[in-house]
Amino acid sequence: MFSDPATNLNKLGLTDGMKIVDLGAGSGFYSIEAAKRVGSTGRIYAVDVQKDLLERLRSVASTQGLHNIEVIWGNAEKIGGTKMREGIADRVIVSNILFQIEKPDDFALEVKRIVKPGGKVLLVDWSEVSALSPSAVISSSIAQALFEKVGFKVEQQFGAGDHHYGFVFVK
User: Fold this and answer.
1) With CB atoms counted within 10 Å of each terminal CB, which end of the chain scores lower, N or C?
2) Where in the sequence is the domain holding 143, given as residue range(s)?
3) What is the pTM of this model?
4) Average pLDDT of the chain?
5) What's the CATH code of the domain at 150?
């Protein structure tokens, strides 16, 4: 099975009213699924550097009647680059973007900055180079070390599909 956002989001315990930040939201598969789970009182902040993907996500959300998604043009590789307030997020989603990150330490610090104390991070990324994956991947051990270095603790590690690993980290 390929990595499934609905299955992976089950690990986060999303509930009504939560504030979720989806970093590198891309096409919005995680944002759309999370928006359904946090209800009309919850909020999804979909952050990406590609404006065209954000506009597409905004359109899909509107078509599906999901009015709790806010798209934000931002850069998660800079401290403050997400344009999010410190400690705003109950949960942060980081899916299939680590291999693209040029400044991993700054990225991890930005994630830490926006997560509330006790908040959680879902990290899903490629586990191996394959015909489907990017040409270079970040191993699960390097990803774990990156987040632990800035103070996160592993709550859970799991297989997130045939070609992906997953973590839930707690701040």
Assistant:
1) N
2) 5-170
3) 0.94
4) 93
5) 3.40.50.150
